[in-house]
Write the structure tokens for this entry.
Amino acid sequence: MSIEVTPLSDVFGAEVTGADLNDWHDDEQFKRIRQAFLDHGVIAIRDQKIDPAAQIAFARRFGELQGHVLSKFCLPSHPEILILSNRRKNGEPVGIADAGRHWHSDMSYAERPPLGSMLYAHEIPPEGGDTLFADMHAVLDALPSATRSRIDGLQGAYNYTRDYEKARAKNPDRPPLSAEQLASLGEVTHPVVRTHPDTGRKALYVNEGHTIGLAGLPENKAHALMQELFEFSTRPEFIYRHVWQRHDVLFWDNRRALHHALPYDRQHIRHMHRVTVAGDRPF
Ligand code: SIN
């Protein structure tokens, strides 16, 4: 079957048809999908019947996988998979029910944030729970030149604990971070304008979830500038909204896209498996 790539919006994102991810070892299929991923930033491959081993094997074709600090919510048989779910088993949550409820780039608080994240929809609610994506190449290209000259050369400061503690205050299912987890989560800095290592394109790289300051700027100035950048980057003209179908595989480029998971009626189950492919240090 031949692979077809069709844009999903005027902004970015594309649907890939004709693929079967159980054929993860198929080189030609992988080459076409990788190119679609680099060209479009977010790709949807619908109607895939894959088990955890196939999801992991396909994701591994893009690079080594990167585990998540919240190991309690990883699939016990396949710890590379992080479970995003509101399902409970024997009264206990099997996954994170409120992951990604703000604009962020996955694990941007890491020294080497992941290249991409691949989310597979096992179960979705009848409505709600869509995921929004912002194209940070388009955002940077559209930034007023005065703003652009204010951010050139700046470094953003990141950490996970501020974001995690905020989420934990609203969701008691999130366990406290252990001393060992805290020790693995220091503060890092990344350039505010980063260069995509595969395409050479530049992107704005700040997000309201994990960017906590701008190195070298006083707090009030940094916060005002960050707020301006957050508001600009989430304007409707930069956004693709993914409305999930069961058995979608969505793979997004964390070096180009921010995303935001929307809420849904908790009477229904939303159960997803995520794997993240390791990336490089942003430059
Ligand atoms: C995330 O990976 O941040 C969550 C995305 C989603 O559940 O739609």
